[in-house]
Design goal:
The complex is a heterodimer of chains A (192) and B (581). Chain A is mainly α and 192 residues long. Helices cover 34% and strands 7% of the residues of chain A. In chain A, α2 packs antiparallel against α6 (134-150). The longest helix of chain A has 17 residues, at 134-150. Chain A is globular and about 65 Å long. The N and C termini of chain A lie far apart (59 Å). The relative contact order of chain A is 0.15. Chain B is globular, with a radius of gyration of 24 Å. The longest helix of chain B has 29 residues, at 283-311. Chain B folds into two domains: 2-152, NADH:ubiquinone oxidoreductase Nqo5 subunit (Beta Polymerase, domain 2); 238-580, Cytochrome-c3 Hydrogenase, chain B (Orthogonal Bundle). In chain B, α3 (116-127) links the parallel β6 and β7 (130-132). Chain B starts with a helix and ends with a helix. Chain B has a five-stranded mixed β-sheet. In chain B, strands 13, 14, 15 and 16 form a four-stranded antiparallel β-sheet that branches. Chain B has helices at residues 2-13, 37-47, 116-127, 169-178, 238-242, 251-255, 263-277, 283-311, 317-336, 358-381, 384-390, 398-403, 409-412, 420-423, 444-467, 486-489, 493-504, 545-551, 553-557, 562-572, 576-580, and strands at 19-21, 29-31, 54-62, 78-86, 91-99, 105-107, 130-132, 198-202, 214-220, 223-230, 345-346, 349-350, 512-515, 518-519, 524-531, 539-543. In chain B, α8 (283-311) packs antiparallel against α15 (444-467). Classes of the chains: A mainly alpha (192), B alpha+beta (581). At the A-B interface, α3 and α4 of A face α4, α9 and α10 of B.
Chain lengths: 192, 581
Amino acid sequence: MEEAVSQSIILSSVDKLVAWGRKNSIWPFHFGLSCCFVEMATSMTPKYDLARFGAEVIRGTPREADVMIIAGTVFVKMAPVIKRLHEQMMEPRWIISMGSCANSGGMYDIYSVVQGVDKFMPVDVYVTGCPPRPDAFMEGLLLLRDSVGKEKRPLSWTIGEQGVLKPAKISMKEQKRAQRKEMTTLRPPDEI
Amino acid sequence: MIPDLLAALRSRFGNDIVEPETTRDETPTFWTPQGKVLDLLIYLKTGLSQPFSMMYDLTAHDMRAYKKDLNGHSRFDFQLVYHLFSFERNAFLRLKVGLEGEYPSHPTATHIWPSLNWYEREVYDMFGIRFEGHPRLRRILMPSNWEGHPLRKEHPARATEMGPFRLWDEKQDAEQKALQFDPAEWGLQTQSEDSDFLFLNIGPQHPGTHGVLRVILQLDGEEIVDAIPEIGFHHRGAEKMGERQSWHTYIPYTDRIDYLGGVMNNLAYLLAVEKLAGITVPPRAQTIRVMLCELFRIASHLVWYGTFAQDVGQLSPVFYMFTDREKVFSIVEAITGGRMHPNWFRIGGVAQDLPAGWDGLVRQFIEYFPRKLKEYDKMVMRNSIFKARTKGIGIFTLQEAIEWGVTGPGLRACGLEWDMRKKRPYSGYENFDFEVPVASHGDCYDRAVVRVEEMRQSLRIIDQCLKNMPEGPYKSSHPLTTPPIKKHTMQDIETLINHFLNVSWGPVIPPGEAMSCIEATKGWNGYYLLSDGNTSPYRVRVRAPSFAHMQMLPYISRGYTVADLLSILGAMDFVLADVDR
């Protein structure tokens, strides 16, 4: 009896349970701007298989989605549309900025491109690359997943303190520096 | 051919109306005064034997800052350049018109070629040149409330020169309001005799549009009465970018124009640069280029194949096809180090030699892939639902295709066996044995048939590259090759200087103009470059196939249903970056 109980009962607080649920079912919005979107779509195909992290359920409408991935260049003509789409998403909602263009304009310092989506929207995770490989995008998603699990949100607007407490953003460049410094022998480009 | 053509035109219009110019790419080029250009265009299209039936491109140059001699011709403030193509002659023709004044105007030619509609709007949007008599002259790429015309020399290029971007609430509302569609503005009726029309907005954010494209449909029930594509949401200023990058550092920007075509874009650009510079590319470099281009053709067609099947309701093929695309990318990555945008071709060759063991990877793929293609035939092409959704849908005839500037698989699906790799071979394609697949009905299904068969032919070409890869250098020894072959630089002063200058300032390409035209994944892709003998181009014109194809959308979707529109879009195989550049 005791054994059966210990296998089927988990003791947790409600907010931790909700956070656990949230972090394991982050549904992305079907939204793409340019080249990066192709790599994002690739991450859902069998070789990469985003379904392992509960994030393969692409939603066609912003009202059903949890995360908006700004996959591509943010064009001046497109910016008001992006903002409107973001406003239509329900809380809790997150944004991943995917690729150099969305991060900072990247190589497109040109009249028709906004120099980074964070000029008019909050960003939770930045993924580098032009375009980032599907693996890099997935690393970004996992970072978001961790951070969502640690977020503190009120269970309702009458219970507890209001406001969202997000964990501080971490710099992967700093974190990986030691490991990268150890990489002294790289595979030469003249062999496969 | 140029003397014959010149004689024919001069005998009809008089000596001072047609003035020939010699250009570096040896395309027949004629100057004509503004008043005569329409007569000349009509004659070239309909009066001439072996006419120039396709309007390939129209663009303009802002010449006010051009300081070099123009080969004896007088300099105008602006010049308009028409590019025509004749299938009978297998030749391009370039017609130039000089315009004077700050904001000149010019008569429209949309009644001669309907395809000029968007090209004239683009020239107006980018240069502020007005076309008198144009049915709807308004901006096409930039937002309607944009100030200035980006490709004029006084317009700033960098976003960082124009002040930080802000989007406050009132601006957001104003922008959203500007996006509202008003049927009257487009001259559309809101009702017919017996029914009210519904205006349906699709995009710029919609899963079926493959990117940021907006289409507004005028519907009578489920039937499309008219469609208005609105583009420009993906305009990345690729042409203006060319005017500030060096000839060498512009290469990565080309990768991102048809972003599924990868290095094939590099090739289109470099062929034009090499024509200007007079560089002959060694056979090994040519063959490496061909092999990578064909690998990218397969990768691009696989994306199209999967997403097209998905558009018409088959969810699983895309998963198989993206898996195979990863196989192509594993080869691309082993050779170039990159995936989608390897940026791997260089002026005069490629970035480096093939790595040891490349042949094993390619051989594996050649053995593996035909079996999969057969499987996909069963899965997609012979599927009855797929056939029902695509056969007899979105039909255009060969005549219409030429009229609207359709190129590539869309043209071949109308029965014309025209492939630039065969008809005007470049980069050594004349040495390869392959067939040009054609189909006859010109509907969505036939466009699919052509592309599927093209993958098999690409595989044949790759197989021939594998078996006959020439030995020799992977870069030309021409001094303008960038960067020059490194092994010489530490030994003699001449190549050391070349290396230093070409890498730090970039190569100085001699003044002149040249155009390239290749059979890219989507159709004919061409770069038309104008050099004033500097380290960066004076003007880069990117003629992208998807722009012309997208313009035809209303014409081929009228009378079909909304569901058919997605088949038509899917079969078109466009990339928004290729439409808007």
